[in-house]
């Protein structure tokens, strides 16, 4: 057998959105692939029934991360659910498919991410949506969701029948990755059909400690139980929290931080773990006189959302409220006669263009050492102003006739005793993650970038990061669809860069 016909091998770390796509593309190309997932298989029925997604928080399938106390968010530690299961966070989320704004990707390219402009990523989106992954809004809205759309129209928002068609603004039915009332994620669509291929090995319940680097090149990974796996290429697809943590434990990161923890420095990369940012939500909850009813099997508790500009001078929407058919009490302080069982709905105000930046650090060299996750949530006053404006808008929508008169909707939280002028304080006391952490392995062409535009880790041969951590700036909307594009383009780069020269 000639060298040209010897199959190359790869280890893909993480069976989430990006990692599953990379795995499929390499398997189809004839590579020997080992897919390593820290969690188990997606056997929990709550994963597959969209009405039960809330059961997965704090469950075995959730990494159950928490931030450090957030100085600008009332000193609270925010829960960051992340998928620890085949399918990754796409096994836990609301399956909402948002491409984002064309300007998001053109902005990446202007910042040095050559080849990532809208003209490059648009056909990739179209290919995903027309190939293996179903993206649909062909499902009936439950009555309360229809009324929320009507109330938004009464507030003056236009109905947008296709927010992925080039214009985000307006109120829309969510486009989701579902089929016949069941969740479909990239693990199910890309990997499961080839799970038993002779050139694929899936290893579950195996947490990766670090990358093995020899003579400046990655040659494999160390697992938490001290065993090793070796391959020609190592691809980290463990997400914006997992991938930088693995790099840091590998000795790839800020020299001073690594030396303080007694970790041998393999490559001084100051921005590993930096540039962490996330979308944020803040709840506006309404009780109703007319019964809304409990969640129904096969029906997501969120079906509509809207995009809106909190200021007229903005080029793109900076808010994306998401609407729930249930009262999302969460950890709100109980209020007699209000907080508890009963009918209601939630207009969850949403910030999608955050200016605040945080960081991820490890607290020790072992996988058991907790991550120090600091979102820097609401550190920038522009974020507070935008999220507060979204809360005020949600209050107005809930008071419109389609909800207040037809459903007897009454604002329970923040509640009438909280004046609009005091909403900023409400936001700081209630803001939570929108589940969209990005940026900790920023791509770019400058020397400080963690990965180059082809997602190769600077300074280490044979090592790539292919997941949402490479985003220089977060996209305008849910990040699952962009993570899928990152998976497709990342796999393409791997195959192109390994092709024999003609």
Automatic annotation (TrEMBL):
It holds the Pfam family GMC_oxred_C. Keywords: FAD, Flavoprotein. The keyword Ribonucleoprotein does not apply. InterPro entries: FAD/NAD-bd_sf, GMC_OxRdtase, GMC_OxRdtase_N, GMC_OxRtase_C. Belongs to the GMC oxidoreductase family. The lineage of its organism: Bacteria, Bacillati, Actinomycetota, Actinomycetes, Micrococcales. Residues 239-253 form the Glucose-methanol-choline oxidoreductase N-terminal domain. This is GMC family oxidoreductase N-terminal domain-containing protein. Its cofactor is FAD.
């Amino acid at each position: 057998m000639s060298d040209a016909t010897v199959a190359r091998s790869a280890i893909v770390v993480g069976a989430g959105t990006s990692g599953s796509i990379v795995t499929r593309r390499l398997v189809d190309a004839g590579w020997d692939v080992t897919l390593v997932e820290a969690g188990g298989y997606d056997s929990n029925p709550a994963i597959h029934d969209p009405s039960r997604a809330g059961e997965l928080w704090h469950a075995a399938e959730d990494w159950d991360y928490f931030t450090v106390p957030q100085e600008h968010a009332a000193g609270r530690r925010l829960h960051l659910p992340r998928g620890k299961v085949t399918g990754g966070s796409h096994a836990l989320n609301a399956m909402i498919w948002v491409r984002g704004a064309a300007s998001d990707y053109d902005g990446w390219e202007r910042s040095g991410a050559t080849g990532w402009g809208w003209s490059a990523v648009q056909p990739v989106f179209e290919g995903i949506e027309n190939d293996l992954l179903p993206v649909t809004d062909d499902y009936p809205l439950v009555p309360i969701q229809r009324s929320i759309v009507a109330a938004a129209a009464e507030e003056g928002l236009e109905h947008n029948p296709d927010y992925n068609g080039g214009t985000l603004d307006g109120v829309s039915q969510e486009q989701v990755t579902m089929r016949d009332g069941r969740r479909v994620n990239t693990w199910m669509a890309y990997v499961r059909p080839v799970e038993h291929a002779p050139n694929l090995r899936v290893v579950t319940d195996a947490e990766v400690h670090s990358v093995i680097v020899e003579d400046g090149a990655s040659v494999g990974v160390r697992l938490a139980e001290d065993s090793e796996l070796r391959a020609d290429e190592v691809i980290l697809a463990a997400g914006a929290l997992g991938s930088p943590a693995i790099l840091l434990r590998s000795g790839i990161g800020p020299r001073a931080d690594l030396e303080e923890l007694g970790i041998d420095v393999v490559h001084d990369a100051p921005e590993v773990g930096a540039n962490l940012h996330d979308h944020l939500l803040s709840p506006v909850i309404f009780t109703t006189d007319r019964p809304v009813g409990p969640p129904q099997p096969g029906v997501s508790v969120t079906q509509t959302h809207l995009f809106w500009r909190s200021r007229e001078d903005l080029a793109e929407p900076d808010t994306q409220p998401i609407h729930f058919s249930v009262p999302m009490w969460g950890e709100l302080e109980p209020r007699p006669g209000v907080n508890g069982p009963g009918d209601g709905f939630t207009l969850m105000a949403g910030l999608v263009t955050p200016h605040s930046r945080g960081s991820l650090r490890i607290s020790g060299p072992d996988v058991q050492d907790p991550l120090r996750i600091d979102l820097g949530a609401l550190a920038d006053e522009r974020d507070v102003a935008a999220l507060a404006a979204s809360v005020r808008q949600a209050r107005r929508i809930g008071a419109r006739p389609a909800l207040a008169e037809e459903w007897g909707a009454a604002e329970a939280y923040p509640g009438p005793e909280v004046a609009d002028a005091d909403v900023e304080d409400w936001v700081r006391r209630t803001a939570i993650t929108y589940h969209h952490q990005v940026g900790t392995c920023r791509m770019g062409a400058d020397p400080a970038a963690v990965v180059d535009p082809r997602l190769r880790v600077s300074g280490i041969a044979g090592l790539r990061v292919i997941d949402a951590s490479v985003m220089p700036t977060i996209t305008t909307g849910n990040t699952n669809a962009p993570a899928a594009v990152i998976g497709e383009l990342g796999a393409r780069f791997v195959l192109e860069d390994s092709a024999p020269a003609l």
